[in-house]
Design a protein that fits this description.
By secondary structure, the chain is mainly beta. Helices cover about 10% and strands about 45% of the residues. It has two helices and nine strands, in the order αβββββαββββ.
Length: about 130
């Protein structure tokens, strides 16, 4: 595993997020307690740590019923295995104050490492040097 963490370090300073994941056929996250009608930023984190070739794991992701990733292949998107990739979206909290993120597999199991939620626009991140 050392090689994996070395490569993730090259793409993110937040290595601990990629030490756990959720994978399976289809699964949903319902994020409650939000302000109805408010727009939020949704940041999805991925890393392909199992397959070593493109096309082995493709899946779809929808946020509040709207497709945001279709036939998503982590390996292809990241440019290889063991490399972090982040996808940013916006979503409006529904009348119940929720954002629903649904993962649906195309073949091999879906996979997700981390979800960030923040009020839009996203916070400014400045490097500390």
């Amino acid at each position: 595993m050392r090689g994996f963490w070395d490569r993730v370090l090259l793409t993110t300073m937040f290595v601990r997020w990629y030490q756990t994941d959720r994978y399976g056929g289809a699964f949903t996250y319902t994020l409650p307690g939000l302000t109805p009608g408010l727009i939020y930023g949704v940041r999805l984190h991925f890393a392909e740590t199992y397959w070593a070739a493109a096309g082995k794991r493709e899946f779809n992701v929808a946020i509040n019923g709207n497709s945001v990733l279709t036939n998503f292949d982590i390996f292809s998107s990241a440019g290889g295995a063991d490399i972090a990739v982040v996808k940013d979206f916006t979503a409006t909290a529904n009348a119940a104050g929720q954002i629903v993120i649904a993962y649906n597999r195309k073949g091999e199991r879906t996979r997700s490492e981390e979800i960030w939620l923040h009020q839009s626009p996203p916070p400014l991140h400045l490097p500390c040097r």
